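Predict the holo structure. Ligand: adenosine-5'-triphosphate.
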Amino acid sequence: MDAPPLATQGLTKIYGRRRTVHNVNLHVPQGALYALLGPNGAGKTTTLRCLLGLTRPTSGTCLVLGQDVRRPEARRQVAGMIDAPAFYPNLTPAENLRVVAELRGVPFRQALDTLGTVDLRGAAHRPARTFSLGMKQRLGIALALVGDPAILILDEPQNGLDPQGMLDMRTLLKDLQRRGHTVVVSSHLLGEVQQFADHVGIMRQSELVLQDTFQAFAGRAATHLELETPDGVTARQVLDRAGISAQVQGDRLLLPSTQDQAGVARLLLDAGLTWTRLAPSGTSLDRLYFDLTGDAA
Ligand SMILES: Nc1ncnc2c1ncn2[C@@H]1O[C@H](COP(=O)(O)OP(=O)(O)OP(=O)(O)O)[C@@H](O)[C@H]1O
């Protein structure tokens, strides 16, 4: 089996007498858009710093495509942005890219293409100090993309952004994934992460307390599968014939949460039915997150 793009084994970091990361076994699958969630101080940034090879673990290892991140060939596969984006504010994006391209031995033309990916081509020749926070974050990502690393690690890229900036960042993250990058993003905003991540790891007080696909995580919160369809009576008959008991609640049907969502969708489609909503619901995800972390989402 191929090694996953990113993994940690027993990752532990101790600063002085303070244990910041304890025995974390992260597993980030190929092509994932993985959110590392947790309240402030949970140990997310330290974990990401170790994954980027910026901080040496006290014990345990960080593996990039199966190799220790401290090996140069592993380091070349992973890039990112920790805390604030790092660039020369008095230089333009094009000038910043030239500096990074030279450092990484990448042709300048190729480096310049990253501005298209982050939608900053129109601002290529403006000093970066004049940028909004969202533009600065996107410039930071463009710089990380120089050399086309397989894996991107971004520490709270949505922090401090206004709603439009958040939306742009969400779109960019999905686009990076579509372009084939494996992306890891830390956040303390469950509501945001819910809108883009397909995998989730949750940290609390230095430990990884949950790691799963987002769908499975959401499934833990669900007590039932909720179906809204303009043709509830026929839908109920179709489900009944397939041995699925559905309760009627107002204009919705509630199915057991154990039902396979894709299977139910297939049944409805085969019967020529449409629906406006088919999704797990029940205990709120916020509640589940709070129970896991003690943090209000
Ligand atoms: N270089 C350091 N020296 C000493 N303590 C540190 C250092 N870096 C982090 N810590 C401590 O480790 C704990 C975890 O910090 P970390 O930044 O990894 O958490 P986080 O989950 O990213 O939180 P935040 O969202 O606030 O950045 C914090 O209490 C922090 O003060």
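The chain has a mean pLDDT of 91. The chain is about 35% helix and 25% strand.
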